[in-house]
Amino acid sequence: MFRTIGLMLLFLLATLSSSGASEADLRGIVAKFATAKGFSETGAVVHELAATGDPLVERPLAALADGNLYIRKTDSLVVIGKETGETIQLFEPLSNEASGEAAKDDITKIKVNNTLRRVIRDALGTLTLGAKDPAVRIAAADTMFKTPDAANIEPLDTAIASETVASVKALLEQARAASVLVSDRPEADRLAAIALIGARGDRNAVSLLTSVEANASGAVKDAATAAIANINSTLALWDAGQNIWYGISLGSVLLLAAIGLAITFGVMGVINMAHGEMVMLGAYTTFVVQQVIRTSFPGLFDWSLVIALPLAFLVAALVGLAIERGVIRFLYGRPLETLLATWGVSLILQQAVRSIFGPTNQEVGNPSWMSGSFDVGQLAITWNRLWILVFALTVFGVLLYVMKRTPWGLQMRAVTANRRMAASMGIRTPWVDALTFALGSGIAGIAGVALSQIDNVSPNLGRGYIIDSFMVVVFGGVGNLWGTLVGAFSLGIVNKFLEPYAGAVLGKIVVLVLIILFIQKRPRGLFALKGRAVEA
Amino acid sequence: MRGNFSTITKMFSASVVAAGLLMSAPARAADDTIKVGILHSLSGTMAISETTLKDAMLMLIDEQNAKGGLLGKKLEAVVVDPASNWPLFAEKARELISKDKVAAVFGCWTSVSRKSVLPVFSELDNILFYPVQYEGEESERNVFYTGAAPNQQAIPAVDYLMGEDGGSVKRWVLEGTDYVYPRTTNKILEAYLKSKGVAAEDIMVNYTPFGFSDWQTEVSAIKKFGSAGKKTAVVSTVNGDANVPFYKELGNQGIKAEDIPVMAFSVGEEELAGLDTAPLVGHLAAWNYFESVDTPENKKFIANWHKFIKNNKRTTNDPMEAHYIGFNMWVKAVEKAGTTDPDKVIDAMIGVSVPNLTGGYATMMPNHHITKPVLIGEIQANGQFETVSRTPGLVMGDEWSDYLPDSKDLISDWRKPLSCGNFNVATGKCGGKGTN
């Protein structure tokens, strides 16, 4: 509805006014924002501006979409506002000249809603086709593909003719094809357009073709149906690939959460219910680091996670050390008491964090290199998940090295395998215990840094991971790091393959039942530790 | 409406909290005060939402005392911590009423906690003010529901999306956390959408567990469902804790509000405080109050709140406004009845009208629900909502949904002589059955 009115307006104005409106005319149109009432009138002004085709209108339109266009209350002047602390810096929308500043109460924001934002995006699409930056042209082509319009064909033809980058040109041609499909061009043109869009092969293509299929008849309809079927069969394969990727990604999160527990529970045999709280402490360390960076060194924000890593390790390791020295060392060999005591510790830690930071979620930002996604074929891979996978594997690798190749790792394994013999060989077993527990806790802490990127940073953060962590360690085989790795990834993938069919709730139940059955068959998990150690 | 529990959690938190309370029993007060009970979790999973409400109540009571108290007496708050543990809610409610002899209780958040205290309130005949939007299908003599019923939030929200301003949505994803509030709300919404001519294949319903954090599959399923050539929207009844990862995944997978808007019923200013909202601009929420609403009452309320909590960054939210309304209504009803005796106050409550914070009045209806305006807000980059639509008048809370076959014949009216919470107009008898 909006679009049709807009279109009519667009045609009307295009025929009435010559393309090169003077800046004074443009200023006159921009001034109309001050008197426009409601979203539909504002939308009409947007169309009027867009119809001038003048690249100058890009700035006020973009500002409007971002919610930066204001009306000054004293003289109803339309201005762009940039917030600087308590006051707002004002700029002339077309020339971008500074025009003083104002307090927040002296200006009114011009309201936009989703529909209006879409109208602006469409309008900007046509205007930015000739932009210098290829990324802007790609965005424009993308917008025009999603909102095809017969009126777009001509500007697209011009843009295609002058386009030099092959990849952008292909996108522009697809956008043109989309527009051809909604125009009254001859059937041959439309069939060619369907072939071109069919080759694109993504969900947007399916979306477009579905609406074509619904409205067309004859050969065009048949071609659309065939193209949809074709794309869908390819997409089904990509779906399987997507499930595997999601599974690996979930697996990496499980691995991160469980890897510290693989040390404290797996190697030392301590049922550590406070493990999740170590993860939480790591996440809160990240929050504190980011707070300090935000207030004192804003330029370092992209490095915040790198800075937080050693600190989180240290904080969690120290707390772990304190727990081991203060509670757990008195309880070795008494699993039930350990369980209760560490549970108590977990409640204390949660409530302590709640008292210090408050019960609400804390905002931990994503550095720029962890935001957004990129496409591999039809698969959207988000950066944060990819980095977490890389990080989880790195942590695993380092830990494996420490356990297998360093003297400390050797002592750790010796104490686990036979405490008394290790003690008689001169190893200070209490200190090895304490340091091992600190290591496991510290690793949980750095897991918290990574998990703060994808989850809530709240006092309850650890609760969500404790059950899953135990599940992974028990399933993988207590005392074996490789078991934890394989356990985490297989649980992740099985979960993600079940989810689309069974739903998240049932999927989780099925996984639990499968694990219970598996444990019945192999009580010691996937990779059982062999030798005398098990009897100890 | 929200919540989560495991048996072990319950056991342990109960004992820990009980121990804590023994040490800090409330000081015995003189008889010349009126006691008000506050029953909100201050520890456990629900502390994240409920602690704020406790603080808001303390502020309201402070303000009333500064105005000279009530019936010439000072008000005194009695705060207990039910620790997000549902059976403990009932115990604490009993303690407040029998031991502390409070005149009224303000509290509960999750539906399950409300259900667990209902028998206590009817047995001991006291008053509960429940401040959270909920699934409806209930009306009790001893409870006043100051949050929204489904017709004061969910239905107008869907109407907005169906309209031209909302983008004329034709395809619907109902995404929720797996418990009673989303399930009932989605059941009502499904019936409502179908009555508006939406085909069954254009509705996708999906549930996830509590505290769900891996949204990749769900978000890509939404993307897939949205690529059928029809305008698609998500109606989210996802519980507070799971929202942050949900929105992060939406942002990362590039789902923009202009393409597939998400309309949330459980996401308020508090939930957004833990998020970078720049990628979420334009996603929607339906409430009866937003912090950004520009009225003198609201400005004063926010200023008082910041002063009371000594933090200029703390947000206000919808359930806080509900307590504001509920508390003022109770004060007015007590003044009208001239006593704090719950029996008389319950009768005096009906018809009481007080200003809300959005520039209108809230009136207590005979079904113990109140009138509210419905606001639709879009998320802004600064973590606030901007109102993009508002119902022209006030909407009366409808406790028994007209869209569910089991409850469409039921009404509730607590005025004498009917005095019935579930009167069946078809059979003319009190005691019809709802879905719960």
Q: Would you kindly provide a written description of the structure presented here, covering whatever features stand out?
A:
The complex is a heterodimer of chains A (536) and B (436). Helix content of chain A is 68%, strand content 6%. Chain A has 536 residues and is of the alpha+beta class. Chain A has three domains: 2-120, no CATH class; 128-216, no CATH class; 239-535, ABC transporter involved in vitamin B12 uptake, BtuC. In chain A, the strands form two sheets. A five-stranded antiparallel beta sheet of chain A has the order 4-3-2-1-5. A two-stranded antiparallel ribbon of chain A has the order 6-7. In chain A, β1 (69-72) and β2 form a beta hairpin. The longest helix of chain A has 50 residues, at 218-267. Chain A is globular, with a radius of gyration of 30 Å. The N and C termini of chain A lie far apart (76 Å). Chain B is of the alpha/beta class and 436 residues long. Chain B has two domains: 7-149 and 296-371, 3-Layer(aba) Sandwich (Rossmann fold), CATH 3.40.50.2300; 151-293 and 375-388, Rossmann fold, CATH 3.40.50.2300. Chain B is 36% helix and 19% strand. Chain B has twelve helices and 19 strands. Chain B has a seven-stranded mixed beta sheet, with helices on both faces. In chain B, α9 (269-272) links the parallel β9 and β10 (284-287). The radius of gyration of chain B is 21 Å and the shape is globular. Residues 2-29 of chain B have low confidence and may be disordered. Classes of the chains: A alpha+beta (536), B alpha/beta (436). At the A-B interface, α5, α10, α11, α14 and α15 of A face α1, α2, β7, α7 and α8 of B.
Portion in strands of chain B: 15-25%
The CATH level-2 architecture of the largest domain in chain A is identified as: Orthogonal Bundle
Helix content of chain B: 25-40%
User: What is the number of helices of chain B?
Assistant: 12
Output mean pLDDT of chain B: 88
Q: What can be said about the biggest beta sheet of chain A?
A: 5 strands, antiparallel
Cα separation of the termini of chain B: 14 Å
What is the multimeric organization of the chains shown? heterodimer
Q: N-to-C SSE series of chain A?
A: HHHHEEEEEHHHHHHHHHHEEHHHHHH
By DSSP (H or I, 4+ residues per run), the number of helices of chain A equals: 20
Radius of gyration of chain A: 30 Å
Q: Segments of chain A where pLDDT lies below 50 for 5+ residues? A: 12-20
Largest interface by Cβ-Cβ < 8 Å: A-B, 66 and 65 residues
Q: What is the domain total for the residues of chain B?
A: 2
Strand-pairing-aware structural class of chain B: alpha/beta
Molecular shape of chain B: globular
Per CATH, the architecture of the largest domain in chain B is 3-Layer(aba) Sandwich
Strand content of chain A: 5-15%
**Main sheet summary of chain B:** 7 strands, mixed
Strand order, largest beta sheet of chain B: 7-6-8-9-10-14-15
